[in-house]
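[Meeting: bench + compute handoff]

Bench side (C.D.) handed over the final construct sequence. Compute side (W.E.) agreed to return the predicted structure before the next meeting so the bench team could plan truncations. Sequence as handed over:
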Amino acid sequence: MKLFRKNILFAPFVEEMCEATANMYRLGWDERNGGNISYLLDEKEVAEYLDLTKVIRTIPTGFEAKALIGKIFIVTGTGKYFKNVEFDPENNLGIVRIAEDGTTAELLWGYADGGKFTSEFPAHMMSHMARLEKDPAHRIVMHSHPTYTIAMNAVCPRDEKDFTHKLWQSNTEAIVVFPDGVGILPAMVCGTNEIGQATAEKMKDFRLVVWSNHGIYGTGRDMDETFGLIETVEKTAEIYMLTLGHEPNVIPDDILKALAKRFDVKPLAGILD
C-alpha cells in the first residue's frame, strides 16, 4: 500500500525558509546571492513529507562532520538569490542528510536544477556542531550582509568587548537580547574550511559572530530567535553609525547593569566589571 505523504511545499520548515529569505532580501541584508541559512530538522516531521529511504544524489562536503551523521537540514543553495526562494523553493533550497561517512551529504529533496548547498556549508555545519554542544535545542544558522553592521565593524577596533560595549551603549534592547556579546573574526577568505573552523570556535562562546568586512552569523533555537538577534544588532549598529562623530549620549554602565539584573541576563564578562 502506498503511504500518503503531505505536500512538502506546504511544510512549515519550507514556509519558514521562504519567509525568512524574503524578509532578509527586502531588508537589504542579502543582495544578489549573498547570505545563507541552514535549519536542523526533526526527522519524524520530515518523514511526513518525504520518503527518507530515497536519496536523489550524494554531494561531497569536503570536511568531516561525524557529530551530525544522520541529521537532516534544509539549506539555501549556492549561487541562489534570496528574492527567488519564495517563488521557486525546489530549485533554491535543498534538504540534505549527513551520510554515514560524515563527509557526504545525501540529497533528499530540492536543488532540482542540479545545484547544491551554499558554499558556506562548512561554516554552517561546523557552527551547528559547536552550538549543539552548548545547547541541544539549537536549530538555526543564519548568515547575512546587513549594511550598518558591516559599516560599524569597518570603523571600530576589531575588539569583541569594545564592539559589544558600543552596541550595548547605543540601544537599551541590546544587552537584553545578546548579553553574551558579539564575536569578531578578521577578514578571511569565505567559503573555506578555515573560516568555518574559525567561526565554529567563536560559536563556543557567542551566538553572533561578525565576519570583518563581510557580514554576520547568527544562531538560535528557531528562526524568530535567530532573525531577531541579527535584526537587533543591525538596528543598533544603525543607531551607532547615525550618531558617530556627534556628542555621545550613551547608556551608562550602571544602567546596563540594572537592565541585566531587571531582565535576568548575564552580561559577557570583562565589559561592565
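W.E. noted at the follow-up: The longest helix spans residues 223-243. C.D. will use this when planning the next construct.
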